[in-house]
Amino acid sequence: MTISGPITGNKNLHSREPFSAPGRDKDEATGPVPREILFFAITSDLAKARSLTLTLDDNLTFGQFRAYLVSILPDLATQLPLCALAGDGAIAMDSDKLGPAQTIAILPPVSGG
Amino acid sequence: MAKLLREPLEDFEKLDLCSQTASLDPTIGARVVFSGVVRGDTNGATTSALVYDAYEPMAIRAMNDLEAEARKLFGIKRALVVHRLGRVPVGQISVLAIVESGHRKEGFAACEWLMNEIKKRVPIWKKDIGPNGEKWQHPSSGSLNPPSPESPS
């Protein structure tokens, strides 16, 4: 299932106000960008979706995004700290900014083979 | 080379494998083939099938990177890794690793290394389906884990 459109980066799921990095000077903003959030394995089950679209500020860090995601999808609270995050297919540190990444993947500990 | 397939891997000779090129490279003297098979009994726990999920573009890239690393580390000629996706019943092949090398020693070593690294570094996940329900298998550690999550701001 793909959820898109009405969900934005705001604790109010029905708000269209984008989510920005706390304390950020709006004059520095390059503008919030719609991002596709991808869920896999157990996180897909918990989110009840394979993907959703969030409008997120490019100065937001992956760590802030992680905390924000739990605030809108509390069922992820236990699992998300164990997950890696990837921006456009590249593993990101929590201190990294989202920047231009159009896709953010939530990657639980792997178990292939 | 790496592939993710939803079809059974039992007919792997029909895939575009090393077999045609081996004869073209006279320095190849060994081909190690490993097939990982879905186990039906793990320490008394019954499995009827595994369901595999993957972040496909990243998984393909990670497996290709592993092949490149294996070439450098072990001096092998080439490797192919094929992983199943979707539901794989007990007894079917879930992952196939084929390594071609000059001699068997580096081939066996590279094949084992590849399998170990796949389990740690490739974004593929499996769900165990059994008589008592379904459960995603997620180890408590792995290279894809975040290094040290910072406190939320």
Fold blueprint:
The complex is a heterodimer of chains A (113) and B (153).
Chain A: E1 2-3, E2 33-39, H1 41-47, E3 51-56, H2 62-72, E4 84-87, E5 90-92, E6 103-107
Parallel strand pairs in A: 1-3, 2-6
Antiparallel strand pairs in A: 2-3, 4-5, 4-6
Chain B: E1 2-5, H1 19-22, E2 30-37, E3 41-42, E4 45-46, E5 49-54, H2 56-74, E6 78-84, E7 86-89, E8 93-101, H3 104-121, E9 124-130, E10 133-137
Parallel strand pairs in B: 1-6
Antiparallel strand pairs in B: 2-8, 3-4, 5-7, 5-9, 6-8, 9-10
Helix pairs in contact in B: 2-3
Could you explain the architecture of this structure?
The complex is a heterodimer of chains A (113) and B (153). Chain A has 113 residues and is of the alpha/beta class. Chain A is built from 2 helices and 6 strands, in the order ββαβαβββ. In chain A, a hairpin with a 2-residue loop joins strand 4 and strand 5. The longest helix of chain A is centred in the middle third of the chain and has 11 residues. Chain B has 153 residues and is an alpha+beta fold. Helices cover 27% and strands 35% of the residues of chain B. In chain B, the strands form 3 sheets. Chain B has a 4-stranded mixed β-sheet. In chain B, helix 2 packs antiparallel against helix 3. The longest helix of chain B is centred in the middle third of the chain and has 19 residues. The C terminus of chain B is likely disordered. Classes of the chains: A alpha/beta (113), B alpha+beta (153). The interface between A and B is large, with 32 and 40 residues.
Short descriptors:
heterodimer, A: about 110 residues, alpha/beta, six-stranded mixed sheet, 2 helices, 6 strands, disordered N terminus, B: about 150 residues, alpha+beta, four-stranded mixed sheet, four-stranded antiparallel sheet, 10 strands, elongated, disordered C terminus
